[in-house]
Amino acid sequence: MTALTIGLDIGGTNVRAAVVDVDGRVVAEQRVSSLLDWESMRAQILGLIAALRADHEIAAVGIGAAGMVDRAGVIHYAPNVAGFLGTPVRAEIAQGTGLPTVVDNDANAAAWGELAHGGARGVSDALVITLGTGIGGAIVSDGRVLRGAHGFAAEIGHFTIDLDGPRCACGEIGHWEALASGNALGRMAREATVIGAAPAVLKLAGGDPDAVRGTHVSEAARAGAPDALALIDRYAGFVALGFVGLANILDPEIIVVSGGLVEEGDLLLGPVRAYFDGHVEGFGYRPTPSIVAAGLGDRAGTIGAATMARKLLR
After folding, report:
1. I want to staple 259 with a disulfide (CB 3.0 to 4.6 A). Which of 45, 131, 156, 207 is the partner?
2. Which CATH number belongs to the domain containing residue 91 in this structure?
3. What would the pLDDT profile of 73-88 be if each residue is shown by its tens digit?
4. Are 141 and 148 in contact (CB under 8 A)?
């Protein structure tokens, strides 16, 4: 019997866990809302793993987590997950399960999934970007996911694009994440409802501007509401702005977009491509990267984490 592995994708909103086979197929999966402190989250993670192990023989565990993860599997900092501050995630989950365990940044995990089973198969140079509560990234160069000197490479959400922009969750002003994450879309929508510019979005939030989230924008946009479509278009411009800068720096063959917002498909990626086209340096005189949704959809993180775990068995 081919060994099964568990992959977990830990973000600021959800914790997802899946049993995955050698071909990248999801055999079973669970999802719960993220908890804030590490002790609660640790118990939550161990509970998910135990529930999946009850019905499946598991050989190893892989975890992709939003945050700065070193080579020992310690998460030093995560702006959107309060429980991750110098947290020895790999050691504690390995001890709690008795299974070989690997931990990496969630975008790096998604990149491994896309390289092995998704939209980046056969590609040697790619950029994988997760658009969710925050923004994560992974740089694939010559077929390898770059980790950097300490394991912290590709924190692409945290470069400044507007010195007069909103404050990022990390505390700095005008980071790309503050303008192009799921949280940023929610903030833009709340600001619009206050001035009466997003009635359809406000209605979905029960008439309370403080309750407006990015999901309300997406739902209203899918229904064709002009105010929501205008917000998506403005938001797409900020997403594309970051894509252009990163493409100029890294020269990827492809930009793979994963994370919760990828579920919107061309509703989001259509205007992103429109804002991106023509703005990469030398446009018209060079190949420019295509922008595609993750082949694994919002499962890229869990399948990728399980793929990382499989590497422990070699």
Report:
1. 131
2. 3.30.420.40
3. 999 998 878 889 999 9
4. no
Rounded CA gap, 102 and 72, in Å?
Answer: 9
CA distances in angstroms from 197 to 125, 192, 203, 225, 229, listed in the order given: 41, 5, 12, 12, 12
The distance in angstroms from the start CA to the end CA of the chain is 16
Which H helix or E strand runs over 144?
Answer: strand 144-145
Question: For the chain, where are the alpha helices, taking DSSP H only?
Answer: 38-53, 89-97, 106-117, 176-180, 182-194, 199-204, 214-222, 226-250, 266-276, 300-311
Q: Is there a contact between 163 and 174 (Cβ–Cβ < 8 Å)? A: yes
The C-alpha atoms of residue 314 and residue 296 are separated, in whole angstroms, by 24
d(CA 222, CA 154) in angstroms, rounded, equals 32
Residue 2 confidence (pLDDT): 67
State whether 192 and 47 are in the same domain: no
User: Are 55 and 141 found together in one domain?
Assistant: no
Burial of 39 (0-12, 13-18, 19+ CB in 10 A): exposed
Give yes or no for a contact between 19 and 51, defined as CB atoms under 8 angstroms apart. no
> Which positions of the chain have pLDDT values less than 50?
none
Host domain of residue 175: 121-294
pLDDT tens column, 53-69? 999 999 999 999 988 99
| Cα 310 from Cα 314, distance rounded (Å) | 7
The Cβ of residue 32 has, within 10 Å, a number of other Cβ atoms equal to: 13
The Cα–Cα gap between 151 and 157 comes to 16
Say if residue 144 is in the same domain as residue 260.
Answer: yes
Please state whether beta strands 254-258 and 290-293 pair in parallel, antiparallel, or not at all (unpaired). Answer: parallel
* DSSP bridge pairs for 16: 9, 31
Structural domains counted in the chain: 2
